[in-house]
Design brief:
Blueprint lengths: L2 H6 L2 E5 L8 E5 L6 E10 L3 E7 L2 E6 L2 E4 L6 H7 L12 E6 L3 E7 L4 E5 L3 E15 L2 H9 L4 E3 L1 H22 L10 H12 L1 H4 L3 E12 L2 H16 L2 H17 L4 H30 L5 E3 L6 E3 L14
Parallel strand pairs: 1-3
Antiparallel strand pairs: 2-7, 2-11, 3-6, 4-5, 4-7, 8-10, 9-10, 10-12, 13-14
Helix pairs in contact: 4-5, 8-9
């Protein structure tokens, strides 16, 4: 290797990052102590943002594209370094690549019950879990507030903070939605959308954007679940008269299966009484159905009582109107 090649090998001519994993959020380009050549090629791929940092200060930000580094496309760096226009020498700087794509299928859950106020049950405790997705929306804020100067960061480094932020605001979001506890199971989609709108501003200060928030399950207190079961049962019952007849028949069967003695006699007596109630209940619809057919009227000619549907009087033969 001649002297020229030895010198040029100390300069960086190509700056790029090929993300090999799905959870890396930030990667610092490794210069190995070398300087960046003015005129070097910077490649920023889709779903990436490159940030130039000079002596700990954030300088220029590059969106997806291919750049030839010069004083023209590094105005902040030029000002910080007091370069004159047309500067053509190598320089030292740190380049951070920020992954801006969505990080999907992030788990969240309540490690302990959260409190919420319900209009019907008052203060109740509930547990919930689901998934969410987020992305880096403001790379400079993210670098300042979260990342710092590490070599790289994965979603594991920020997911804990995001998860705690979301869970802490979940009870407020559920309460503000005004969806009753009894109706939550049927409104997961609506509740998830409301929670997304309510929780998204809480992570903006970290330079992040909450893209989706999904509630997969909400575990309600036992007394609330019992109330839901009762409401469901009432919906299944439908016709109360038929349900009463069914319950009466079940009681008669249970009484008949009660063996011997006073218990058996009491069961038979109760069964007879219930049977009478059931018979009366069964006869009422029949009587109500026959009532219209038994309606009568009087013949205007001779005053004989005849069926209302009769065309002629059977006594005097007068045609009925």
């Amino acid at each position: 290797m001649n002297l020229f090649n030895a010198l040029t090998s100390q300069f960086i001519n190509v700056i790029e990052w090929k993300d090999p994993s799905s959870d890396v959020m930030v990667h610092r380009f490794d210069t190995n102590g070398h300087e960046i050549m003015m005129g070097a090629q910077l490649t920023v791929r889709e779903s990436q943002v490159a940030v130039m940092v000079n002596e700990g200060k954030i300088a220029d930000v590059f969106n997806p594209g291919r750049y030839t580094l010069s004083t023209q496309n590094m105005p902040i760096m030029t000002a910080l370094q007091s370069w004159k226009y047309g500067f053509n020498s190598p320089f030292k700087a740190e380049v951070y690549f920020i992954n801006t794509r969505q990080f999907l299928d992030q788990k969240w859950g309540t490690s302990s019950p959260v409190m919420m106020r319900d209009a019907e049950f008052g203060m109740i405790r509930l547990r919930a879990y689901g998934i969410y997705a987020f992305r880096v929306s403001n790379p400079t804020v993210f670098l300042k507030e979260v990342f710092g100067t590490a070599a790289y960061m994965t979603t594991e480094g920020v997911a804990g903070q995001v998860k705690r932020t979301l869970v802490s605001g979940l009870s407020d979001a559920i309460a503000q939605s005004k969806i009753p506890a009894l109706d939550m199971a049927a409104n997961y989609d609506e509740l998830s959308q409301y929670a997304l709108q309510s929780l998204a501003p809480r992570v903006e200060g970290l330079g992040l954007k909450l893209e989706s928030f999904v509630i997969e399950n909400i575990s309600l207190p036992e007394e609330v679940e019992k109330a839901i079961d009762q409401r469901t049962s009432m919906g299944v019952v439908g016709n109360m008269n038929q349900f009463t007849q069914y319950q009466t028949a079940q009681a008669i069967r249970d009484a008949a299966n009660n063996p011997g003695g006073a218990g058996a006699m009491a069961g038979l007596g109760m069964g007879a009484a219930m049977a009478q109630v059931m018979q009366n209940a069964a006869q009422q619809p029949a009587a109500a159905a026959e009532a219209p057919a038994a309606e009568t009227k009087f013949c205007p000619e001779c005053g004989t009582k005849i069926p209302r549907s009769a065309k002629f009087c059977p006594e005097c033969g007068t045609k009925q109107g």
